[in-house]
Amino acid sequence: MSDSIWRVVWMGILGAGLIGMAGLLLVVGVGSVRELRQSLEELKPGDDLDEAESPVDPVE
Amino acid sequence: MGLFHTEFATIDWIIVVVYLTGSILIGLWANRYVGGLSDYLVAGRTLRIRLALATMTGTELGLVTVMYVSELGYTKQFASLYLAVIEVLGLAVIGATGLVVYRLRQEAVLTVPEYYQRRYSQTVRVVGAVMMVLAGVLNMGVFLKAGSLFLVGVTGLDDPMALKLIMTGLLLLVLFYTVLGGMVSVVITDLIQFLVLGVGALVVSFFVLDELGGIGGLWDLSGTTYVNPLLGDNPVTSQEADGVGPWMLMAQWLTLSIAVMLWPATVSRTLAVKTPTVARKLYLFSSIPFLARRTLPALWGIGAFAYFAAHADLGSEFQQAIDSKNISTLSAMPLYLAKIIPSGLLGIVTAAMLAAFMSTHDSYLLCWSGVVAQDIVAPLCGGLSDRGRVMVTRVSIVVIGAFLLFWGLWYEVGQELWDYLAITGTVYLSGALPVIVGGLYWRRASSAGALAALVCGVMGVCGLPQVIDAINSRFFADPDGFQVFPALMMLVTMATPTLIFIPISILVPDRQQVDGSDTQEVTS
User: Fold this and answer.
1) Cβ of A26 under 8 Å from any chain B Cβ?
2) 3-class DSSP state for residue B47?
């Protein structure tokens, strides 16, 4: 593989990294705040019994 | 302008302090959501895909990653990007097929060693846990050092005592909110850190690109630097064998492919998601942030290389500092950023990097401490109450933190940081590979084979340069004849546990297998 091909590959990968990070911030950023709220709602004390409440190891 | 000149000013310190104070408050607030053990260790398995992705990015785009990737960008320029290709391909294959991670999440375990007991025996669980914690804590031992080198470079703070105090304070901060809030706290802070870090990384990349003369400048630069990783010699330096080459490429491909699948901190996030399908999707989508973590810091390292090459006086001062062992190539990127990012923005970038530092530390601390409580102390004590396990986890976080402080501040990394991480990681990964994959997919995998493979993982330390030198001087003294080299040793140590696991599993099967009453049904 000649150096020119490597250069094109690396430029493409650097570009994909930059665009990927920007896209991730846009797409995941907003949605994840909403999901965090949902998770915290589910974790509110008293909502349900914890599956690991038993005093002994469940796999023993 | 001297080598340690920086744009970091009072406003930058204010930004950093405000950010860190916010982290303390979040840790305190998250504590109210921790009800039981699974809340503490895996956030009650409530994570959905976006949140899991944000927190996975927060963990895996740590400051230590930024430091070692930028160091590789500085020393090997564009050729260092081969690691990005390997990692992204590995994640995409796992995400598309669900290989290992789907079945592992189906097991509904809290930790990987818990799976060892379910599939093999309690002894395998305890031995596997010990190996995991040993490798993980050693691996993590240099994180603090990398963080301190970043702060020195960016802030220009050259008083060793002040630096140690700052790093101690940072570690205490992480310990504080991780001990209090467990995974709930980790997830919340990771989300904030993901947002701060993501914006910070893009801002830095913009300045670096601008300083390089835009895309055109970057393209021109690629024509005069190291681009072909198949070459063992880096053409821009005069030293021999300081490039990548086919052997190292193969060794890194093997190590990294296994690491993305089985590294405990990543797997712990997989175990915290809602369903096995989300676990699979998490891997598929994680290829984007993993690509970013391997490319953006590499770009900054490449920028640093070009900067020191263009400013001959600074380049020569930097080389002299490296030769006199005052600093290492790890410092190239922070020293560079301190000169090209304006005051104010530099504070935000530093806060982003400290966010990266903390988000990795909190997840790793929780991961290893959870393993100590769940898989070493609890089985050896014949079972512990839920409350007792949370207590042991919290104590372990503090003990591991104390070790990190001690190890991180005095241990000198004798090779490139990534090589150190890969070698210490091999201690766990080489043994875990056959034990987990064999357990999930091969009915004849036995406890004896698993134990042999896990213990054999210790061979991973043979990849350290000091051990390779000792082997060569003892067995291969002729410098013109055959000599062991790091990539070969990495391949041998990675493959040996698997090669031992298979025959021992066949020769020493578990009792259920001999009786023909195997109840360890492999899940579909």
Assistant:
1) no
2) strand
- Which of A1, A43, A57 has its CB closest to that of B379? A57
B47, β-bridge pairs: B273
Nearest alpha-carbon partner for B353 in B67, B63, B23 = B63
Among the partner-chain residues A14, A27, A43, the one whose CB lies closest to the CB of B39 is: A43
Contacts of B39 (CB under 8 A, 6+ apart): A43, A50, B33, B182, B183, B184
Q: CA–CA separation, B381 vs B324, rounded Å?
A: 51
Q: Which amino acid is at B429?
A: L
Nearest CA in chain A to B287: A20
Q: Which residue has the tokens 């630096």?
A: B163
Residues with Cβ within 8 Å of residue B423, at least 6 apart in sequence: B460, B461, B463, B464, B490
Structure token pair of residue B304: 């640093």
Q: ipTM greater than 0.85, yes or no? A: no
* CA closest to A34 among chain B residues: B51
Give the C-alpha distances (Å, rounded to integers) separating B394 from B32, B37, B41, B179.
16, 12, 11, 5
The pair phi, psi for residue B309, each rounded to 5°, is: -75, -35
For residues B194, B198, B200, B202, the Cα torsion angle rounded to the nearest 10 degrees is: 170
- Cα B440 to the chain's mean position, in Å? 25
Report, as ranges of residue numbers, the positions in chain A whose pLDDT lies below 50.
Answer: 47-60
Amino acid B177: pLDDT? 67
Sort out which chain B residues have CB atoms less than 8 A from A52's CB and list them.
Answer: 36-38, 110, 386
Assign B453 a pLDDT band (cuts: 50, 70, 90). very high
A29:B32 CB<8 A: no
Tokens, residue A25: 């911030």
Point out which residues pair with B245 in neighbouring strands.
none
